[in-house]
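Morning run. Coffee first, then this:
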Amino acid sequence: MEIEWNNKDPFYDRDLENFKRLHAEAAISVGIILTRGTTLQDNIKDAVLRFARDQNVTSYDDLSTLVDPTSRQKTEVARRMKRTGDFAEAWAAAFVADKFGQATTHWRKLEDRIRRGVGNPCPLLLIGIPYSVITF
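And here it is:
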C-alpha cells in the first residue's frame, strides 16, 4: 500500500511499476494507493480556509505550532494580503498553492496513469479521499 498525499505526481509511476513487478514475482496480490480524491483536490483551499477561520487564525503566531513558513512563503502571504486584507484567506491561498498544486499527487494524476495502463496487470484498489470526510 502506498499513501500518496503530497508528492510530485511521477511518484505514481514508481508506485504502479513497483506493484507490477511485485505482482509478477507473486509477492503481492493487489496494489493499493490512497490519495486525495477529486472533490478534496478541488476544495482543498476551502478546507484550509475553513480550518483557519475555525481556529481564529489571524497571524503567524496563531499557526506557530503547525507551520514554520519560509521567508518566500511569508512574502507570498504578504502579497496576497495586500489584495484581501485578510490573513486567514491570504495564508490559506498561499499554503494551498505552495503545497497542493496540480503537479502533486491527487486522483486525476493517478487516473491519467491508470488509463495509460501503467502498472498493468497488477490488480489495484485505488482510494480517493473525498472532501466530504474532512472535519475539524
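The chain has a mean pLDDT of 94. Good start to the day.
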